[in-house]
Amino acid sequence: NKQVILRDYVTGFPKESDLIFNETTVDLKVPAGSKTVVVKNLYLSCDPYMRIRMGKPDPGTAALAQAFNPGEPISGYAVSRVIDSGHPDYTKGDLIWGLAGWEEYSVITPNPSHFKIQHTDVPLSYYTGLLGMPGMTAYAGFYEVCTPKKGETVFVSAASGAVGQLVGQFAKIMGCYVVGSAGSKEKVDLLKNKFGFDEAFNYKEEQDLNAALKRYFPEGIDIYFENVGGKMLDAVLLQMKPHGRIAVCGMISQYNFEDQEGVHNLTTIIYKRVRIQGFVVTDYFDKYYKFLDFVLPYIREGKITYVEDVVEGLENGPSALIGLFHGKNVGKQLIVVARE
Ligand code: NDP
Predict the structure, then answer these.
(1) Residues 218 and 275 placed together within one structural domain of the fold
(2) What residues does the Enoyl reductase (ER) domain cover (predicted)?
């Protein structure tokens, strides 16, 4: 059983050498009386929050993400096939998505964050992204936290990623004007030509983020879907409309810093009566089947599309995960461990 192990707690940007490989044996039969499930992992999801789990245990973030243990396999969202089950709700052959180890086979204890996959007329890998945790994040964050209305102006950062590309498409379905930022020309082209954003720009090429935002939002921003934090948040604050909303989904620009960058334009929150709300997707997992009912028809009709960045082989997992922090992924980053 090949595994990806955390060598030691990470400070600063993660490096490939922070993750090492191990080979163990695994019993593919569940012991009598055990309620565990043995799964074969097919697809692994690379998610930015995993960096937080690579750092030293921190009481501030523990409720969101428990630190990984050095010397043990890291874990994350996965699509897996049940090999053997002692759990009454699972039988051999079932496909599930939820947390599993970064390894070929995992022994899991199913919990409410494991979902049985019932719809297989769509790509199975979508359950790491569009139909999995990032899809639920976009859905809950946009519809529940942003409380959008038709005609409102929406800005999304890290807009071509696993979450952002969906937020933009949901905003268009809602009848909003939506602009996205991303870190390369290729990503900007995707935003405009594939995901239907009204406008998009490469934030790395803008000298002045305020000027860029003013260009696309002359009347201001009603909704900001925050994925990056730092300088972008500072610039957005100045461009918010009165009673605007900011859904704080993530702040990837800060995850590798011990001391986070300061945000300066905070008084604008008062004058503009801005509502800023952070959220964590797992709080919304009870709405997962409602989300599926909503999103599956759009996928089947081709009205929602999804771009994945697929890497083959567990051995290429560490570099794919680390690539997120350098913008290497184009779309949802996932790893194929096995196809069946
Ligand atoms: P992505 O697929 O968007 O991948 C990460 C992207 O972030 C990179 O491709 C890069 O895109 C961008 N990025 C990396 N470093 C920086 C930086 N320093 N400044 C600006 N952009 C940067 O990731 P996800 O869609 O999976 O996640 C997006 C955000 O949502 C993350 O912050 C994540 O932590 C958060 N999240 C929060 C959840 C919650 O429950 N609250 C659940 C899931 C995700 P580019 O080339 O455009 O710079």
Answers:
(1) yes
(2) 15-335
Task: Return the CATH number at 125.
Answer: 3.90.180.10
Whole-number Å distance, alpha carbon 165 to ligand 1 midpoint, is: 11
pLDDT at 62 over 80: no
| SS3 annotation, 153-193 | EEEECCCCCCCHHHHHHHHHHCCCEEEEEECCHHHHHHHHH
Report yes or no on 148 lying in a domain.
Answer: yes
- Probe ligand 1: pick from 47, 252, 306, max atoms within 8 Å of CB? 252
> What are the pLDDT digits (tens) for 30-55?
999 999 999 999 999 999 999 999 99
Rounded mean pLDDT, 197-203: 98
CA distances from 171 to 125, 154, 179, 181, 245 (A): 24, 7, 10, 15, 14
Query: Ligand 1 in contact with 187 (CB < 6 A)?
Result: yes
**Three state DSSP letters for 281-298:** HHHHHHHHHHHHHHHHHH
| CATH code, domain with 278 | 3.40.50.720
CA dist list (Å): 54 to 204, 281, 335: 27, 20, 19
DSSP state of 336: E
Quick one: pLDDT at residue 334? 98
Stretch 236-259: mean pLDDT: 96
Judge if the beta carbon of residue 277 lies within 6 A of ligand 1. no
Q: Do 278 and 149 share a domain, yes or no?
A: yes
**Domain carrying residue 19:** 2-129+307-336
pLDDT in tens, 90-127: 999 999 999 999 999 999 999 999 999 999 999 999 99
147 shares its domain with 106:
no
Global confidence as pTM: 0.97
Statement to judge: residues 177 and 228 lie in one domain: yes
Confidence of residue 340 (pLDDT cuts 50, 70, 90): confident
Quote the mean pLDDT of the chain.
Answer: 97
